[in-house]
Amino acid sequence: MILINLLPHREAARKRRKDTFYATLLAAALLGGVLCGVVYGWYTARIATQQSKNEFLQSEIKKLESEIKDVATLQAEIAALRARQQAVEDLQSDRNMPVNLLNELVVQLPDGVYVSSLKHDGGNVSLTGVAQSNERVSELLRNLANNSKWFAKPELIEILAANVTLANKEQKRVSNFSIKTQVLKPTDVLKAAASAASAVQVAPTQAASYPAGKA
Predict the structure, then answer these.
(1) For 209, phi and psi rounded to 5 degrees?
(2) 153 with 181: CB under 8 angstroms?
(3) Alpha-carbon distance 205 to 199, whole Å?
(4) Cα separations in angstroms, 52 against 40, 55, 56, 62, 202
(5) Bridge partner list, 151
(6) pLDDT digits (tens, 9 = 90+) for 112-148
């Protein structure tokens, strides 16, 4: 016996496919919404965490800036105290400067040279005097340049020939001179003396380092 289905099966199948499509579409939309919510929540949590880190870093930076200001203030105070200490030391050392200059000048003056005026102006000294000859003046310049620990870089300003009358009314030719020279600070003198002492100590050590019998 042959059975014939007279119901609209094609429309029913089409409806089932349509319902399945819509159900799948709705499920995909729900899944996408859930995924978007999860991703959004994750990024929101990361942003909040980073913002808290940034706020912490900013607070620490402010603390460091205040500490840096305090350190700068301390450094300025230390520099001011050192400047005051150096000024006091300079004043204490400058008290003996005239005595040191006069003693050094007596040592460096060659025979036949007489100083009539000495003027100390800051870091320079101006000397005027009389010498028996130009050679005596040159010797004085060499002594001040090479042998003195207080004077440096002497400069001949003027030298003039003149005649003086001796006790026996004899005329003698002399040279009137004017010299300008720099004066070293006591601290520079001490440093130079320390350097010279260390050089003297190093020289024997280097000589002893050579093996015997070799140059």
Answers:
(1) -75, -15
(2) yes
(3) 10
(4) 18, 5, 6, 15, 63
(5) 183
(6) 999 999 888 878 899 999 999 999 999 999 999 998 8
